[in-house]
Amino acid sequence: MDAVARAHEEHWGRLVATLIRVTGDWTLAEDCAQDALAVALERWPRDGVPDNPGGWLMTVARNRAIDVMRRAAVEERKLREAAMIEPAPPEEDDRLRLIFTCCHPALALEARVALTLRTVAGVPTADIARVFLVSESAMTRRITRAKSKISAARIPYRVPEGDALGERLPGVLAVLYLLFTRGYDGEPVLAEEAIRLARLLSELMPGESEVSSLLALFLLQHSRRHARRDAAGELVTLDRQDRALWDRPAIAEALEILLRTPVEGPYALHARIAACHATEGETDWGSIALWYDELARVQPTDVVQLNRAVTHGYAYGAKAGLELLETINLDRQVYPLVIAVEADLTARAGEPEKARALFYEAAAATPDGIERRALRKRADEL
């Protein structure tokens, strides 16, 4: 039923987050939230969708939690706490507490991603397992271990304050970024979940510019999803994409976000770079190069320097890009994109034979079949 599906998408995170806060039991919270949705699936087609679906689900889930705890003879104190659950959100949204708890640095990064997907977004364990290329039972154990570690380590169910918030927020954003990247590289549903979670976090933390910038970055990158592959499923580079296929409303939303968001961190810079690529006319490589110069200052990683070399090659000439490329210390066999960048810059420097050999070398070092075919195609074109 569509109404139940919408209720799951809109209210799952709040249901689970509130039930965890008042019961202290992650598994019980998820089970009761799931039971409430099952009851809705049975009753709503017969009785009609209630005026307040979220409040209705919370009441059913609350009553279910009380019944389960009573039958399990849980101590009287916890029973009283469960009975005090109220549909109205507390002063600090429980979903924000839940996101920061799922993304606690004490957990391994992939465990944080899996736990966030399952608990905050309500993604079925089987789907998460498929993304991580493990069995459903293995993913169930992984998520269970993460929950157990939260309990055993007494990780607090709260949003950090003061300096601690500044220290923890980048870790939360990194989880969302990894989630989006997995979706961007082949699982669109994960990219959509990352956008939904970034939008939720932006609503809950409206004063954090990096949160808003991350949402804008996701929208800009995802706007090109329909143009990234041709009819045969092969990769299409940005300069050859059909821009009529880009999601213009998503781009407009992202640009509006950036207009009211100050540049205060690396995600803000990444978003501005993506915005430069989202134009309908000629790409402004000069502006992109300047943004990458600033990004290299605040985030001086080899990957950023590699992209900076590309943009300098387009903005100031292939020779300028090649000179920057010589300063990068990435292993060419582990990171064959370095070879591909050299090949592209070499081709534009007027050395097609050398570039052709480099494209073949990059293809040989690339494990992904789609990317390998794209590199061979570039070689053949030369």
From TrEMBL:
Chain ranges of the RNA polymerase sigma-70 region domain: 10-72
Domain (RNA polymerase sigma factor 70 region 4 type) ranges: 99-150
Chain ranges of the DUF6596 domain: 168-259
Similarity field: Belongs to the sigma-70 factor family. ECF subfamily.
Name of the protein in question: Sigma-70 family RNA polymerase sigma factor
Keyword Transcription recorded: yes
Domain of life: Bacteria
Segments traversing the membrane: none
Keywords, ordered alphabetically: Sigma factor, Transcription, Transcription regulation
Native source organism of the sequence: Paractinoplanes bogorensis
